[in-house]
Amino acid sequence: MKLLEVQDLHKEYYKDDKTSIKVLSNINFSVKKGEIFVIIGPNGSGKTTLLRILGLLEFPTRAKIQYRGKDISKISRKEVVNYRRNLSFVRQKPVVRNTSVFNNIAYGLKVRGMRYRDYVENVNNIIDFIGLKGMENKNARTLSGGEMQRVAIAMNFVIEPEIYLLDEVSANLDPMNIKLLEEFIMKIKQDKEKTIIMSTHDPIEAIKYADRIAVLNNGQFTQIGTPNEIFTAPKDEFTALFVGYENILSGIAEIDEKTGLNQIKINELIVTASSQIEGRVKVCIRPESIGIVKDPPKNTSYRNTFKGQIENIRDLGNICHVIVRCGSEKFLTTITELSKKKLELKIGSDVFINFKATDVKIL
Questions:
Q1: What is the mean pLDDT of the chain?
Q2: Burial of 150: CB neighbours in 10 Å, binned 0-12, 13-18, 19+
Q3: According to the model, what pLDDT value does residue 292 have?
Q4: Of 153, 160, 64, 76, nearest to 114 (Cα)?
């Protein structure tokens, strides 16, 4: 089910001399209920403006924005208020109100018409969860920067809206609060009832959370797809350079009791990793960590060796990107132009790829 659908969105700002600055153009996408849709792009690409428009904090120059099938780009002020109560907009630089920790976190629930007796337990539970128990009555603005950030995060997650709009929320967080934010997001992801639309300039953060990724450059989407599609098959040079062209695969991880190593089942492939994370995971391997040879390697220390066939070769000056299909999966390797010539690599060549267990990053 399409929860939110955007068609032909454009945004321009007009200057005093009646000239305009184009910020967003020809934006088209839809988001399903329960999906995490991540918008990645460099600073100045239009990410914040797009999220503000989705939150009706500002309006597009032209667009059709449908929420549950209803066009919300042209609704009354009262309808705007009702729509906003279905979402939470978490800004890059969180702010708190000049009142107690408890009142800050309870504020969103109060304005939504909840009574004290109905929300007091939820507020106290989330205060405990963020590690501020005993500080309920302290003025939030007297707390340390990190504590204040935790209050701001809790303010937006306690209201449990249908849609969370997260604008580069981890950019100014310390490691402890990034971990807290991750716990909130993962809890929402498992629930499948709430929807997250978030922006980031960090490709690794996008991989960690996203069901789908949209790449935004100069106000336009250059590509929309799953993390694996974006990172293994970028459609243009900008996308390839921006995402770092990673190998990202999804699988089920389980620790081997005999070796203590992690065995990740990715369709018919078993990838060995040193990380101890189990369950459903995303596997990331940098292209430069993957070796490529023509003959089966002997006496190698590499824990992962797979036979495959070259599907594509992209010449990039002194280096080459070689895409190798191993069964159901594709791997991107990076080698020098000299190595390619020595190995006589061509599209269709049978090869072996290999990489170490320590080179496998698990998210």
A1: 88
A2: buried
A3: 92
A4: 160
CA distances from 357 to 283, 361, 362 (A): 11, 9, 11
Say what the alpha-carbon torsion angle 111, 117, 119, 120 is, to the nearest 10 degrees: 120
C-alpha span between 325 and 13 (Å, rounded): 47
For the cut 90, the answer to whether the pLDDT of residue 31 exceeds it is yes
| Residue 221: count of CB within 10 angstroms of its CB | 19
Instruction: Give the torsion through C-alpha atoms of 304, 207, 30, 27, to 10 deg.
Output: -110
Distance (Å) of CA 270 to CA 252, 264, 282 = 10, 5, 13
Which uninterrupted H or E stretch holds 150? helix 145-157
The pLDDT of residue 245 is 64
Place of tokens 């991540």: 38
Query: Quick count: other Cβ atoms within 10 Å of Cβ 155?
Result: 24
The pTM of the full predicted model, rounded to 2 decimals, is: 0.73
Q: What is the sign, positive or negative, of the torsion defined by CA atoms of 66, 239, 217, 93?
A: positive
Contact, 230 vs 223, CB < 8 A? Answer: yes
Q: Tokens 């990202």: give the residue.
A: 248
Q: Is the pLDDT assigned to residue 263 strictly greater than 80?
A: yes
Strands (E), the chain: 2-14, 20-32, 36-40, 62-67, 70-71, 87-90, 163-167, 195-200, 212-217, 220-225, 247-255, 262-266, 269-273, 279-285, 291-293, 304-316, 319-326, 329-336, 350-355, 361-362
Q: Tell me the pLDDT tens digit for each residue of 304-316.
A: 999 999 999 988 7
Q: Are 303 and 356 in contact (CB under 8 A)?
A: yes
Q: Tokens for 67? A: 């929420």
Cα-based angle 231, 269, 297 (whole degrees, multiple of 5): 95
Phi, psi of 359 (to 5 degrees): -85, -5
Which residues of 201-278 form beta strands (DSSP E)? 212-217, 220-225, 247-255, 262-266, 269-273
Q: Is the pLDDT higher at 42 or at 235?
A: 42
pLDDT digits (tens, 9 = 90+) for 102-149: 999 999 898 888 899 998 999 999 999 888 899 999 999 998 888 888
Q: Please tell me whether residue 237 adopts helix, strand or coil conformation.
A: helix
CA atoms within 13 A of residue 134's CA, in its CB half-sphere: 1
